[in-house]
Write a structure and sequence with these properties.
alpha/beta; 3-stranded parallel sheet
Length: 357
């Protein structure tokens, strides 16, 4: 027993010493405290040159981590075991994070470049007065299609997706809100609908789409559509832009029944250890030149009005990605449906996916 205690003590001392050494080395390399900024973002969602420039300008070391869904991001921040100084969630996730006290209130006096954001994208319902969030990118959900492969279909209506000529030709992104929203919108319902009869109607209609569904996929949807592995895809507008850059045969349409108008936003989670650095980074990204370069790299629509003047006209005048108010007036922001209803949406989507196999 004494030998076991001595062994445990030695292991404990060695582990403690290693922790101290790691902390010292990290500090000496600028990897802790105020010299480090940890950013949590979607994959391939920032120009990496901007991260390098921020490091050079600020003297901080950027640690960059990625997530593939708002739900995954929320889970990790809720667990609280990892430090994130800046995160970039979507609007409905921000509503949930506010409810659970997972966000630090922003100091607007430290964000002088906030003046560059278009007023249309400020003071929205999910964060009035932008107390906790600053717009990063915005866009829509719609249909990418290859006109040469769809026999005259235009996708001005969601119902075109159900055309039997599209058998085994549709790729769907792997998102419960997006796919259930498509089903609800196709029936004239809100994509935030919580009426159980309407949800079951949407599920039943989606089930009839399965002969046309080739696969339900993640980020690989961009490569598959660009390579003409399928004729049609349900995608976010930024992905559509990237796909169309790879294959100029393709087009993008937001159906007339309506769809999602989404916003991704910069926030400071309560896990932050470098709140001052987080404000510096957010303000850096709000600089017009930085915002314009980021928009060109990522392919999504910038809410930065001053940056628009720096972007090529073929980008800013493309109404597929910078739609006018006639279209945006038909679009809806995702509401925070609450944990129970969001879980129900996920269950319905899982039922659809199982039916699609």
């Amino acid at each position: 027993m004494k030998q076991l205690v001595r062994t445990f003590a030695l292991v404990f001392v060695a582990a403690f010493a290693l922790m101290i050494l790691t902390s010292y080395l990290n500090k000496s390399q600028g990897y802790s405290g105020g010299n480090t900024l940890t950013i949590y973002n979607w994959g391939d969602y920032i120009d990496p040159d901007l991260l390098t420039e921020f490091e050079e300008e600020s003297g901080m070391k950027v640690i960059y981590q990625t997530f593939d869904s708002n739900e995954a991001m929320l889970t990790k921040i809720e667990q609280g075991g990892t430090t994130f100084d800046v995160a970039i969630p979507s609007e409905y996730a921000i509503s949930k994070m506010k409810e659970e006290n997972l966000l630090v209130a922003l100091d607007h006096s430290k964000l002088p470049n906030l003046k560059n954001i278009d007023a249309r994208f400020m003071n929205l319902s999910f964060d009035e007065d932008n107390k906790f969030s600053i717009p990063y990118f915005w866009g829509t959900v719609g249909v990418v299609f290859n006109p040469e492969l769809v026999d005259g279909l235009t996708f001005e209506s969601w119902n075109d997706l159900w055309d039997p000529r599209l058998k085994n030709q549709i790729l769907l992104l792997d998102g419960a809100r997006e796919v259930m929203g498509m089903g609800l919108n196709s029936l004239g319902y809100s994509l935030n609908d919580t009426n159980e009869d309407h949800l079951q109607d949407a599920l039943a209609k989606l089930s009839t789409l399965t002969p046309n569904v080739r696969a339900i996929v993640g980020d690989e949807i961009k490569m598959l559509l660009a390579n003409e592995e399928a004729a049609v895809g349900l995608v976010w507008s930024g992905d559509a832009s990237e796909i169309m850059d790879e294959n100029d045969k393709l087009d993008y349409m937001v159906p007339e029944e309506g769809s999602n108008l989404w916003f991704d936003n910069m926030v400071i989670p309560t896990t932050a250890r470098n709140i001052e650095g987080a404000h510096q980074f957010i303000n850096f990204m709000l600089d017009p030149d930085h915002a314009a370069r980021n928009a060109e790299y990522v392919g999504y629509s910038t809410p930065n009005a001053a940056a628009l003047a720096l972007l090529p006209e073929d980008i800013t005048e493309d109404e597929r990605f910078y739609p006018d108010e006639t279209l945006t007036g038909k679009l809806e922001v995702y509401d925070n449906l609450g944990k129970k209803m969001l879980s129900h949406y996920n269950d319905l989507f899982l039922e659809f996916k199982m039916h699609s196999k």
